[in-house]
Amino acid sequence: MSVRLATRAIAIMVLALALVGVGASAVAAQPAADPHAGHAHGPGEHGGAQAQPQRAADAGDHAEPVGFQNSRIAALFFWIFAGLTLGGALFVITRKNLIAAVMGMVGTFFALAGLYAMLYAHFLAVIQVLVYAGAIMVLFVFVVMILNRPEDEPWALQGLLGKALAGLAILYLVGRLSGVLWDVKDSPHAAVAAPRPEPVAVSVRGGAAEHPAAAPPAQEDWGSTRAVGRVLFSEYLFPFEAVSLVLLVAVVGGIAVARPHKQDEDRRSDEVSA
Amino acid sequence: MSQIFYELTVSHFLILAAALFAVGTVGVLMRRNALIVMMSIELMLNAGNLTVLAFARYHGGLAGLEGHALAFVIIAVAAAEAAVGLAIVVAVFRSRRHADIDRLTLLKH
Q1: Nearest CB to B56 within list A90, A121, A253
Q2: Which chain A positions have a beta carbon within 8 Å of B77's beta carbon?
Q3: Taking the domains of chain B in order of start, what are their residue ranges?
Q4: Which one, of A100, A216, A88, A270, lies nearest residue B46 by Cα?
Q5: For the whole model, what pTM was predicted?
């Protein structure tokens, strides 16, 4: 029973992963979209127009702004990702089996990464998958394994559905990876990802206004690793370093708390002998 | 009316984040297993992150990228929180042989 639930959770996760891949392809296939295009439909219409006057002038007619957020495919993906996110979250809080809950959590995080990508937060989408779906969930799985007694039934996919889903997942992943590796040389996306010469406002006077981070990022660069890193390593360098200190303290604190203490072992041996 | 379904606005993402936060809150309040409670806390943190990123996208420009920096810091702090919280769960389990938060009433009185 629990294994079947876990299988279902893995199916959700794989589906989310596939959708993230397809969504990323859809984003890449779109023409260079304007991150500010959403302003025209948002409540703060005039605010966006004030902030970017020349861009609004470039856009020409305001009637039909182009952009990823205004395409119906994007809306479809939003609803799919939203359903996966909420479904995964509900899955997490309703499961008795902890491993199934963790797998639902991973599916939720993949769907959230897709939503982040839709919000042009590409760097954070990757970070979401790496840190949350990767590191934190592995930590959870470890603790679940420590806390739970091993199950009697071995970990195996049961039933035709599970096997078919697992086979499809493996086929999909292999095909996807080989597809990426196949056309990595003449991929049109490589031109986008390649570093472009950007004017960096390096000033000898060194005023706050001429800070390198104050240079507005290129339109299609918004939310990329490059743009976020420029902000993170210039203006927000101190919070960045503070976060490293927080992580160090968390590591030391985690080891100090979870380490088996002497009195615990003494008490346990007392309980055993008594 | 049907525009709601195919014209995405920032409200879509905000409402989704609110719903996700609500699910996380329900998980924290209703579940008794400490690990599920921690996962629900992670859900709530992710809902907050989704809100931050939706507003960053809505604002755009350099301020939006600062929102991305904030979300990055939130993810790092969430990782630290998960590490320490799971260490506490492990320590509690080691001394009590369970991780049922309804039975952890030592500090109640």
Answers
A1: A121
A2: 243, 246
A3: 8-96
A4: A88
A5: 0.67
A114: domain CATH number is 1.20.120
Q: What is the pLDDT of residues A48-72, one digit of tens each?
A: 333 343 343 333 333 333 344 457 7
> Domain limits at A11?
2-30+71-194
End-to-end CA distance of chain A: 38
Token pair for B72: 């990055």
Separation between Cα atoms, residue B71 and residue A46, nearest integer Å: 26
Number of domains in chain A: 1
Question: Tell me: the pLDDT tens digits for A211-267?
Answer: 444 444 455 678 888 888 888 899 899 999 999 999 999 999 999 988 877 665 566
Q: Which residue has the tokens 């409200």?
A: B11
Q: Dihedral (C-alpha) A131, B55, A20, A76: value to the nearest 10 degrees?
A: 160
Mutate which: A73, A116, A129, A234, vs B, most B CBs within 10 A:
A116
Q: Nearest CA of chain B to the CA of A146: how many Å?
A: 8
Domain B8-96 has CATH 1.10.287.3510: yes
B contacts of A65 (beta carbons < 8 Å): none
Q: Is residue A179 part of a domain?
A: yes
DSSP string, A138-199: HHHHHHHHHHSPPPSS-S---HHHHHHHHHHHHHHHHHHHHHHHHTSSS-HHHHHHSPP---
The question of ipTM being above 0.95 is answered as no
Residue A260 lies in a domain: no
